[in-house]
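#struct-help
A.M.: can someone run this one for me? Single chain, 338 residues.
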Amino acid sequence: MSAPLKNADLTALNSFGFASRAQYLFDAASDSELLEAVAFACEQELPFLVIGGGSNLVLDEYIPGVVVRQTSSGYRLLEEDEQSVLLEVAAGQNWHQLVEQTVHAGWSGLENMALIPGTVGAAPVQNIGAYGVELKDRFVSLTAYDREERVFVEFSASQCCFEYRNSIFKSGAPGRYIITRVRLRLSKLFAPRTGYGVLSHYLDGQDVTAQRVFDAVVAIRQSKLPDPQDLGNAGSFFENPVVPVEQCERLRAEYPDLVAYPERDGFMKLAAGWLIDQAGWKGYRAGHVGVYEKQALVLVNYGQGSARELMMLAAKIQASVMEKYGVALVPEPRCYPQ
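D.P.: on it. Structure tokens below:
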């Protein structure tokens, strides 16, 4: 059995760059190494946390128990025909690198989700998405380890219960399943999805290809989001709230410039960044943390910040938006310890 690191420094393993230490840290590049970490936590009766790229985490100064970093990577081709390919991707694979590799290979479907930080194993948990496309649109199935039953299990798309930024792994049974492999169906026949506002404007007049969509998404995201290496952040901090059409219409009557998109029958998705910006928070700084000056949806660590500082700021923003618009904002990142 490989020995875990004790009192391991997690500062470089979370994109906010918060100073944090774990009681124990395991690296798991295979199923057997993952099972060793699980067994160790069970034997010691310790809390258990799996991390990927650390881009969707708010870590406190000390994380008790066992932290497992999935370091598996790569993908394999399971099926191929004239129209599509079926890929099985390791949970530790960097998401953006996968998107880049598939676009270069001539397989489309992920290009709208370029530059989303994190790993493939974390993608189903949040049902990640961007510019009109979500993971569930390309998802086929996954393999996960069930910590309760102590067996590997398979999940179909319907069993994952995907919703906007949600799944069974996030709200139905958090912490029970450890995703190890994800299977995605990608197309050889490019069908652009460019109806999403800013992306449509960026590509206007161009001969649209998967590579050009990829390049456009990267350029747009880089213009709005700071590099975590330069300024600690976790990308979009709040989910875009989904509200009934009637509530959206009442808000639009009072705020004609309200940014909203159809979500599903009877519901609209509001732009959380617009709500926060119009409430006066863009560029706000509170000690070592703040709201990014170019995008109000992004909270940042200017250096030496802490999870507690950040969550205090987040709570103030939530209260402000609720008071002004009557809309609840929900943070996207997971906070540990909870």
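A.M.: thanks! The radius of gyration is 20 Å.
D.P.: also worth noting: The chain has ten helices and 20 strands.
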